[in-house]
Amino acid sequence: MTTSTATTALRGLFLGMTVAVAAAGTALAGTGAPKAPEVKIGKVAVAPNLHMMLGVGGFTGGNVAALTGPDGLLIVDDKVADFGEALEKALDALGKGKPRFVLNTHWHFDHVGGNERFGAAVIVAHDNVRRLMSAPQEFKSLQKKIPAAAPAALPDVTYNDRLTIHFNGEEIQVHHFQGGHTDGDSVVYFKGAKVLHLGDLFFNGTFPFADVDHGGNAFRLTRNIGVILERFPADAKVIPGHGPLATMADLRAYHAMLQATTKIVKDAADKGMDLAAITAQGFPPEWKKWEWAFIDSTKWIHIIHASLGK
Ligand SMILES: [Zn+2]
Asked: Are 114 and 66 in contact, with CB atoms under 8 Å apart?
């Protein structure tokens, strides 16, 4: 599979996001088609030397953290490959040159898409991220195949449980949380700035995705968020994998949703209801507002159900 067909296949994973990604391309130029809104990389100041880089006007991939200082530039995640150039320009504007470190929160294409572009950096991730990226993978639940990554895109440094990087006067802690979103999730904590990047353990304000084909599990995800709420300061700022910058209060609201919705599905299954019956029953109206284009109640119920007993 070539890179471009792989990218096209990958886009299909994010059903509702496909429009925005396509709109950002040049394919529509000169066709007389209505001009689509432009998708750009924006930035939000999180701390004096720490920015969150995010898509403005559409989907560009997961949120990026960028730490600047006398040692240079360190980033967490690097979006989808199609937006690598736009991300590079936005990072160049921070005035610290190319990234010296790239930390990947997990292996998904919308978080590691720029790895090859930033391949001169030291790329750091959990052991399982390198393992998953090194070989073709398949999302069985979504019937999507992912090719192996180019060698330059693979993490150079991998770790098992916890790793600390000292850079720009900051203590950057990388904590592994097993089996929530994937089997290679990292949580990055900037201790001095009190800023967390949770990767896709946290979709701020929406139902999350758990990659059950690669070790993810809705119940472990819920437990991991509970541990994160206890382990890190209540006044930490939180960069989610997707969605706007958050507080720990936002993370608590998300945790309450996870606890309630996973319990609804588990209780129904314990009563002997099958997946079709649970899906037909759905969630009470209070959880409707967490639906979005990629994960509606039905998809979230399917993910929780697939996580049962694992
Ligand atoms: Zn992900």
From this structure: no
Spacing, Cα 217 to ligand 1 middle (Å): 12
Q: How many residues does the chain have?
A: 310
CA of 266 to the centre of ligand 1 (A): 24
Burial of 54 (0-12, 13-18, 19+ CB in 10 A): buried
- Report residues near ion ligand 1: CB below 5 Å: 108, 200
Residues 259-285 pLDDT 10s: 999 999 999 999 999 999 999 999 999
User: In angstroms, what is the span from residue 181 Cα to ligand 1's centroid?
Assistant: 7
| Residue pair 130/155 in contact by the 8 Å Cβ criterion | yes
State pTM to two decimals: 0.89
Segment 132-145, tens digit of pLDDT: 999 999 998 778 89
Q: Answer yes or no: are the C-beta atoms of 80 and 64 closer than 8 Å.
A: no
Taking the C-alpha atoms of residue 61 and residue 78, their distance in angstroms, rounded to an integer, is: 8
